[in-house]
Amino acid sequence: MQKQARTLYILIAVMLLSLPGIAFAQETSLSSSFTYQGSLNDGSGVVNNLCDFQFGLFDASTAGLQIGSTLTRTNISVSNGVFNVQLDFGGNAFNGTDRYLNIALRCPAGTGSYIPLTPRQALTPTPYALGLYGLEVQQNATSPNLIGGFNGNNVTAGVAGATISGGGSTANLNRATDDYGAIGGGINNQVGNNDATLNNATNATVSGGQNNTASGSIATVGGGYTNTASGVAATIAGGANNTANSVYAMVGGGSNNMAGGPYATIAGGNFNSVNHDSATVGGGQNNTATNDVATVAGGQSNNASGFGATISGGYLNGASGLKSMVGGGEHNLAAAIDATVGGGYTNTASGNSATISGGYLNIASSLYATVGGGLTNMANGNYTIVGGGQTNTASGSYTIVGGGQTNTASGDFATVSGGQTNTASGYFATVGGGQFNTASGDYAIVGGGLMNTAFGSRSFAAGRQAKANYAGTFVWGDDTAADVASTGINQFVVRASGGIWFGTSSTPTFTGFLNTSTGAYLSNGGTWTNSSDRNKKANFLAVDPQTMLQSVVNLPISSWNYTTQDASIRHIGPMAQDFSVAFAVGEDNTHISTIDSEGVALAAIQGLYQVTQDQKTQLQLKDQQITSLESQISTQQTQLNDLATRLAALEKLAENTHPPTESGLPIVGLVGVLVISGTWLSQRKTQEKN
Which fold does the domain 9-127 belong to in CATH? Predict the structure, then answer.
């Protein structure tokens, strides 16, 4: 008996409804079983009998692999050649590829052996199975296309593995033009490109939204409106009118944004643009990152055009230097390698590694120059710093202006700490502050004050109108409105009309012009006054004035000049070493204290006074002796005069009484006696006076 079976389309439709992995809007879930209906005749006509059947499922028309186990159905009624059986090869039996039924039977039932029918019967889908409940399945040799939603949604012929889950409308169809594209829903969305090549924009995804296109391989549009991801692996999460047209480019959202560089990212915002490799715009409006690895975090109308440049935010800022940065603010520019502007308004860092923290209209134009803030400050020397203030300039290398107004540090390593209109133009020169001060000498310092000048190298000026015009000079001016100036090198000049005080105590006292805490001072009249208060002294010892006098007599005194003076400048005095040996006083043997030299002089004067007093006493005794002798001499003179008178009378008498020849010898002898006596008295008086 010859038997033949044929398969009707309705059987396969029932089978497809039962295939696992396809979901439909049913009230109850369908099983994996399906109804197979066949028509059987035995060569002489249709069969009318009870028959036994065996069904095997294979993946090929001949040979191939069997899917599942062989199913046996017995006592199946065949009426007018038609029979129906319920078959179930399991939920995994059908995966969209070809399947064939291998059928064997025996009629009547229970008799003989099973006879196979040839050829195997191909199981083909019916139109109902391809479009049931809004789902169309397009079979192909690779992977079926699944089309849901509006019945006008379409997959380009030849495309495999595409999925349109839903959405679409009459005038807004969803379309898949390349392999393995997926559209989740929405309207007028497209995955794949329009170049008629079916495999160069594969695996693209549009999750939903309207008018969105994912035309790059592995490109994704999450949703939104009129977004286009045309780069390989490009992504647009949402928003409107956004474009990601380069490899791995990404737009998070917002509107009218364009990520046009490889690995470019725009998180959101409006009218932002990134067209270079790995560049980023976080958000904001009209921001652009126009170089590789550049970043604009937000703000408006900012442009990071340098490689690796960064703008955190603000308005109309630019970072054009390599790895430059602008933190924020408005109209700021970082225009050199590693330059930084923190914020503020219209600041420009144009030197490599230059920094401006903030402020207004500041400029840092040299290597590693820094402006902390303020207004119209300029750091245009290498490694210079302007801390702040207004219209300050640091133009020398390694210079510093701390702040203030219109200050200038133009000498290398010069410093102006603050104040107004101060200038440090010397090498390593310093102005501490004040107004109208100038330190123009190398290493010169103006501590502060008004209208001071340190012109000499290593000079110092402070106060008011102090002029240190020579090297190594120190000049201090008090509040007198007149210049006070040094007149030579290495001078210490102080004008202090109210007096000067040096000391260790906390409360100054002003007794004279130059005062000290020790009690010594220089009087207003120009004399030095030592402290000699008894209450400040101890360990009193008496001195021998005459010994001191003798020591002074023995002390070498000479004329000399100091080694630091010209030889024409002479001084007179002892050596400190000799003074120390002679009197054993003072701090050491190389100095002589004025109070010690004065004390020695006073003691020596006392000793000299004692000597003169002794001599005076002796002289008084001599005077008394002389007076006595003079009295004696006077008496003797009287006597001599009397003798002379008497002698004259005798001579006259003799002349009248005796002749000269007879009386000459006695008279001569008498005269001789008188002369000898007078001579002796005269010598005696002279000796007494001596």
Answer: Immunoglobulin-like (2.60.40)
